[in-house]
Design brief:
- The protein is α/β, with parallel strands linked by helices and 160 residues long.
- The protein is built from three helices and 15 strands.
- The chain has a five-stranded parallel β-sheet, with helices on one face. A four-stranded parallel β-sheet has the order 3-6-9-13. A four-stranded parallel β-sheet has the order 4-7-11-15.
- Helix 2 links the parallel strand 1 and strand 2.
- It is globular, with a radius of gyration of 21 Å.
- About 13% of the residues have low confidence.
């Protein structure tokens, strides 16, 4: 085989692979966490567009940093699952969940119980103890807010 034929075949294969890469849909990556996992580290990794929380209590706070991610329980439509999938901000002195970086409707919070948020201006927020939304528009469904507090406005949820 001549070097010219070999070069043409190489170019053809390269063009075919490039076309395939450009035409392939983006693959959605999903991960299921347990309470021993870190939700924030999973969001920050940028590897997943759906994070499913298994039942249990997650003593954490979460900020989306503009990411279009779904954060949900294993079954957002089952009240028993929602009640047993808890993000607890106790002793963290801040909103439990923040959407403050332009998140849109593709950022979804679904089927979670959000408790013990305390927006007291320590974490740069004095609003929305449970969920603080500022200049963003995430989708929030099937969530329960309980025992959240603030030094200003929106103990359970504040949206601007």
């Amino acid at each position: 085989m001549s070097s010219r034929t070999m070069l043409n075949r190489t170019k053809t294969w390269a063009a075919a692979l490039a076309a395939l890469a450009l035409s392939s849909p983006a693959w959605a990556a999903t991960i299921t966490l347990s309470p021993i996992n870190n939700i924030q580290a999973t969001i920050n990794s940028g590897l997943y567009d759906e994070i499913i929380l298994g039942p249990g209590t997650y003593f954490q706070k979460v900020e989306f940093f503009g990411a279009a991610i779904t954060l949900r329980s294993t079954d957002p439509n089952d009240p028993a699952i929602v009640a047993s999938t808890i993000i607890d901000g106790q002793f963290l002195g801040d909103s439990v969940i923040k959407c403050i970086a332009g998140e849109g409707p593709d950022t979804i919070i679904d089927g979670l119980t959000i408790i013990n948020g305390e927006a007291n201006n320590v974490g740069n927020s004095d609003r929305g103890g449970g969920l603080y939304i500022n200049l963003a528009s995430p989708t929030v469904r099937n969530c329960v807010f309980d025992s959240n507090a603030t030094s200003n406005a929106g103990g359970g949820l504040y949206a601007n």
